[in-house]
Fold each of these.
Amino acid sequence: MLARKPKTPATYADLEALPANMVGEILYGVLHAHPRPAPGHARASSRLGAELDGPFDRGRGGPGGWIILDEPELHLGPHVVVPDIAGWRRERLTPFPEHVGRNSEAYSADFPRTHPFAGGLRRFAPNRPLLAHECPRA
């Protein structure tokens, strides 16, 4: 079910006001909140992260040079999203952020006016999560 767009856009304060057992995201000014993942989902996500850690983060049997994180809070223009797992080339995420939040620049991106993401995330599939490989390059 699609959330109805409120009269005023959601803010980071709305995210901070959510209970600790909820995950919140802001897309197109609308606050979307859902419970933390169920144990089966969390286990699947953790196992995927473990599979990616050796070859991509540590370079064991793979290219290395990546930072893989579970549930990072991403600030993409006006949007705040929390994917299950995301990865960055190490050189693109320096310095490594110490925290995220309202006043943090961690995992944020500003786009030139001509960038396809400058006006917001792609609208081709607004009901599906943004995949890590779809995250824009700053």
Amino acid sequence: MSNFVKEVAGYFQNFLETDFRRRRQPKRNIVSTNKDGTKILINLDKYPRFKDDLYKKISDPKVFDADFLVQPGTYTSSLEQSSTNFFLKNILESLPDKQETIASSFNDELVGFFVKYIDDIEKFYELSDDLVCDMLAKHIFGESSASISATLSRRSEDDSINQYEVENQLGLALFERSKEEFHSLLLEFSVKKDPGIFKQFFNTLLSEQNIKIVVNSFFSSLSINDLFQDLSILSKEIRAKDNFELYLYIGELLFDKKSFPIAFIPIEIDDKSSGALKVLFEKRYFINKQAIEYAYQQVTGKNVGGIASLIPERTIILEEEENIADSIKELIEKIANKAFLIPDSFQGSFNTVSALTAQNLKIRNSFFFTIADKGDESALNDYEEILGMIDAEDGLFADLSKLIKSFIGGNPKDISEKIRTKWNKYTTEDRLVFESPIPVNEEQRKIIGAVSSPDGKFITVQGPPGTGKSHTISAIVFRAIKNNQSVLLLSDKKEALDVVEDKLTETLNKVRTDENFQNPILRIGKTGNTYAKILNRNSIENIRNNFEATKETLSKNKNNLATEIKELKTAVKDTIATYDKIKIDDISNYFKLKNKLEVDEESEIYLNKKFKFTI
């Protein structure tokens, strides 16, 4: 059996890692678009403020569940200062010549407008404003905007900001600084008819100081990209594809014109809030083991056994005092120093991008958001765990082997008739009164009985949506909790687990003394309850304090439930006995007499009270 399981686990592990391509590029790599050309990558270097906020979260050991609210305009990217400086330099070098050109051209155009619209002063003002803005855009900012057009195109991925947009907005911004003065001069011109009065206006408007203020202000507030929009695109792509998830990639391995993440964190996007996205993740991460081993083989020509000790596990669950940032930094530096013999380390903050370089390999501390298939990693972990248990002759494998043998080779025992027979023997009070924190019907009681049976190894429950399957599972779990048992609940659909978890949490909350009491449900693949969070010192201390506070009350009332159940059954039994004494003929005669005497409801109540009639 062990050889069979080992071969099957190795087969699927190899498929998930390489698609059976002979030691070629692993599946989890860093690419900007998918096969359809859709954008699936966000380089967080574009959003330095978000990156700083993110780094603070992953550097804090007290943060078990990190979350960010991303709204439009909250995290945006702008041009580098070097681009702004280059833009200004181009303008200022030829500014004196342009001042003279603009003033002269404006005077000629202005006279023509005035003659044409002498009887429509509003139109004259409007065209004069447009004329100044157009001249400023074309002659002052046009050439400089063209000089950074390639930068704008590269940075603005949807082409919403281009050179023409920049030069027009700058022309308008510069004009707005002196618009009132310009209108006063237009009024004076309409009286004196002398265009020479605008010369000083243009000298002041086109001063070096004025242009610097406008350009620096414009580019400092220019939003070329918005993280909200970028994440919205990825969120829509996730909804359109089955089994895909958002990930945070930390660390980048570059060689042979390929790029791979070193570590990654599953990210949950909550887009239920109007006009905002919530980004959530837990205090854990995964190592891209296959990519590191692949790079090691390609670069060194050695077997992966040489670095096996560096990456003992794919999934890293951090202790209470640890944090994600330091743990990943230590991992990356260890890989660089010991696997690829790069003696350097990251200097300064790990949040600032730098690289550790060898002859044909580069390791960078990059940060990316991307989407990828979420099922592969968990399956890889399972197969690797199975292979590890087999090689180590772990006792758990004996249990796994026994389970597989019984499932494949053994015929399960049919206990359906036994369960029905047992149910039929129940008294009415036993059927109606059942110890469960949530109500259950007859079929659900039978299912719970099958699960509790020693012969009930494999139970199948079928039914269309809305018939109570999740409710039944919740009742089974509650029974296990009462019996001090642990439960592992699995599903291929997140929504099914959500329903059961919500039902369990809602019911458990009713018996908790403190709303801040740590939820004991460990949910894998969803932010909220991690192993470290459940077992951290504060949670354990809180449990202990709650237990001490309620211990005396529990001791006094430990038999209350049993007593209540007994009293309920007795009450049901007595009610049944009372109704057994009622004769149908007496009831029939009572109503016949009531109709004959034409007794109304009010009179009936009065007579019953006065004479204490009984049937």
Amino acid sequence: MLAGGHNPVQMAQDAATSQMQMQMAQQQMLAQQMMSQQYQMTQQQQQTQLANQWIQQQNSAQQAQQWLQDMQRNIPQSQESAAAKWQDERKNRWTQQERRQEQPTATAFEEQEVQKIDWSAKARGAFQRCFLSPSTSESPTAENLRQQLGICIEDKGDLHVIPGPISSFDELNCLPSYVLQDLQWNGITNPLPIQCQALPLVLSGVDVIGIAQTGSGKTLSYLLPAIPHIVAQPEIQRGSVSPIALIVAPTRELAVQIVEEAHKVLKKSQTKERPRGVWATAVYGGGKKGQQLKDLEYGCEIVAATPGRLIDFVSQKNMTLERVTYLVLDEADRMLEEGFAGDMETISGQVRPERQVLFFSATWSHAVQKLAAGLCNPGSAPVRISVGQDKEGSLTENSHIRHARDGIIQTVQVVDIPDDYEKQVAEKRRLLEDYLSGILWNAADHKILVFVSQKQYADELADKLWKDGFKAVAMHGGKSQESRLNTLDRFRKGEFRLLVATDVIGRGIDIPQVSHVIVFDMGSIDDYVHRIGRTARGKDGHGKAMVYFEYYHKEPQIAGELCQILEASGQVVPDDLRRIAREVEEGKRPVFQYKQKWKSWDRKDRWNDNKDNDNKERSWGSREYYHQTREHSRDQRTDWAKRTRHDRHDSSSDR
């Protein structure tokens, strides 16, 4: 060690370390300088490239413009005008496309029309109609059994021998075994009277008109024969929207109910012969079109539809009815009325002329009978049967007298304050609310259905009863389809005790265990029969019906018709109701007089123009025809606006 304490080795190491640190710092500075220079060069190159591209584009645009100018100088006058015309057409097409996109989708649907089919030029294969051996002679016990069941053969049509009624489903050997199993599974052991006679008739291949009381089992009378009719034909391939059996109904709820009944007997329809089975679906307005088309494309043999949505699908060529050989009109009298007659004429023209046609309803008339005959095969007459009607039939001298379902106790409350209509309406509402409170408090198991004409009053009444502690709900055409179906399903299950509804469920809807039906607004006598028929369903059903009657000068005949239906059903006729009917006959009650030019109007027979059109009846007192007259627009601010009468067209959205 040297003097002074310095170590030469340590000093050398420190110097080497310092030198290395200086060299590393210099290298880092050089690296940063190089990176900065590269970044600057990269930015300059990019800017240079962008500038070059912009110059090239400008040059290309100038060259293109120069080229167009040179071409235009060399184009002949005719070609120049053609080019200008092409540009104008292109501009117009673009403008029209923008307008179509701005317009609602429904407008495009309304512009489309159903194309008529020339059936003489169509090659059509034969199909099987008859599935039972024809009877050669009348069974001696058949007529006795008909009398016991209340069945009347009103018109034999083209049949010389009417097959006898059946007593069990097993007698129909043509029904698949899975149908009989599903019937047993659902607790359906024996056929109802209308089914006893209608099933062998339909399976014999003839057109049938079936008239029976509400809740008598008419749905299965046409659903069960449809199955062997379908199985005997080639299977519908997936993706083909061409049903075999078409059932037309007036309301959405009824179409959905028909499909639900079909599903009960088609659960086990997948067999070796038809691996996919037999499928049914509903088509109705207010539902999602995409989902309905998806169900149809699966290959559905049975379609229950409302007329409006069905025509939409046919006009847009989403489905075809050329394979339909089995056509059913449920609530047929309603489907053949003026409101639906045009739609049925359109649908009929899309279905094969040699189809089998069935009509089922609870009410019937001479006018409807003539229209129904026009839908059948040319030169053939349908067989008409009735159950629970007069012994002479449904089209006799007393055929205008309607018959309510047996087992219904009918009560009529007359509210007659002709000098003060608003006081009369207030009194009706007070009586209704008192009656509802009484039956709701008396028994917890009462299930009540109230029919009104105004949607607003339906909501008001349901809200008031709910606030009073009763589970009540309203249902009308102003609510969405999902809401209506959900409400109806929950009412069937008993989650609601009371349902206030308009005429959307006035026909065909089966609701079990309805104890009371209340008709707040009378409407026509046919509507009254169908509405109170929502109670006393089934073979031995019982129920009560209450109607609040008020005289209406545009339908003066209702008082007398209601007296007749009460007498025919063995019910008590109130003295006030008899008095009003007598005053109408004596001319002491005001009656609306329609103009002569409207009275003399004669409706053409849509399907029988070549037949005798004499003795045509037109119910000029009915409200639907009053809507078509000028008197309606003149009176609507006075009498009609005050009247809270029955809305016949509340279910028009179903179309």
